[in-house]
Amino acid sequence: MHTSPHWRRWLSAALRAALPSQCALCGMAAAELVCAPCHADFVAPARLRCLCCANPLADHVEAPAADARAAEPDAVTAVRWRPRCPRCVARAPAFDATVAAVDYAPPLDQLVLRLKFAAELATAPWCARVLADAVRAHPDLPRPDMLCPVPLSAARLIERGFNQALEIARPLARALDLPLEARLLVRRIDTRAQSSVAPRERESNIRNAFVLAPHDAALVRGRHIGLVDDVMTSGHTLGELAALLKRHGAARVTNYVFARTPPA
Fold it and tell me: 39 φ, ψ to 5°?
């Protein structure tokens, strides 16, 4: 039976009212995936993060003097002075910025695990909403021209049946009113999962694993690309993708991740 978008929204709301859900974190009755008290406890507290990699920073970081900020080009003045962690200052990554909604830590890490390994796809739109809120909380950061999910290999996609980054990217693109280029990037090498690789080997594990889809170089040249993923751990995967995009002429790359693994 064909239903209009209006009727689908009405039907969805009616079903939610008729079938109350439980909070995925505490088990109490909730209208959303996560109840309001858990959202306030685990999601709402914003953290000061590094502009580049989104690792947590100290609560207070001095900004450069106004005359130093004034020396920057107008288009980037609002962004340049935002704090960076010592690691990104010492060795700037290929990407230009990262927006992370939450830390990858209990209990929110369980939502990611259930999305990826239990195929609880209803988790993805909620992650996208939280991430969209984090993006809106930084109006000084320029929005990308398009969003692109971190791709899975063909073998991993067949095994899992879906790409969790794409499941988050779709509703995120709608929330931010941005185009989604789901096939812009291709993972040509089925690498070992980064979580299973020793930290010192992660950069080499992911090297040359990705290519740009044929005939899409013109789409990238001079554009600001937003990369979407569920979790950012070491940053090597996103760094490899950003470097690839920059080699093909991308002007800027920003990462949008639901969760950021805090440094050990």
Answer: -60, -45
CA 100 to chain centre: 6
Question: What is the biggest distance separating any 2 CA atoms in the chain, rounded to whole angstroms?
Answer: 64
- The pair of three-digit structure tokens given for residue 232, joined into one six-digit string: 């950012």
> What integer pLDDT is reported at residue 221 of this predicted model?
94
Q: Which fold has domain 47-260?
A: Rossmann fold (3.40.50)
The closest of 25, 19, 51, 30 to 260, measured between CA atoms, is: 51
Closest CA to 131 of 120, 116, 147: 147
Q: How far apart are CA 264 and CA 261, in angstroms?
A: 9
- Cα–Cα–Cα angle for 128, 133, 138, nearest 5°? 125
Residue ranges of the domains in the chain?
1-45, 47-260
What is the rounded distance in angstroms from the CA atom of residue 188 to the CA atom of residue 186? 6
pLDDT at residue 186, as a whole number: 93
Walk along the chain (264 residues) in steps of 10 and give the mean pLDDT of each run. 50 49 90 93 89 83 44 42 84 96 96 94 96 95 97 91 97 98 90 62 77 86 97 95 96 98 86
**Residue 72 in contact with residue 80, Cβ under 8 Å?**
yes
- pLDDT score of 72: 44
User: Burial level of 241, CB count in 10 A (0-12/13-18/19+)?
Assistant: buried
> In Å, how far are 6, 131, 138, 147, 170 from 176, measured between CA atoms?
20, 10, 13, 10, 10
pLDDT at 209: 84
Residue 222 φ/ψ region, left for φ over 0, alpha for ψ in the -120 to 50 degree band, beta for the rest? left
Question: How many Å apart are CA 219 and CA 261, to the nearest integer?
Answer: 31
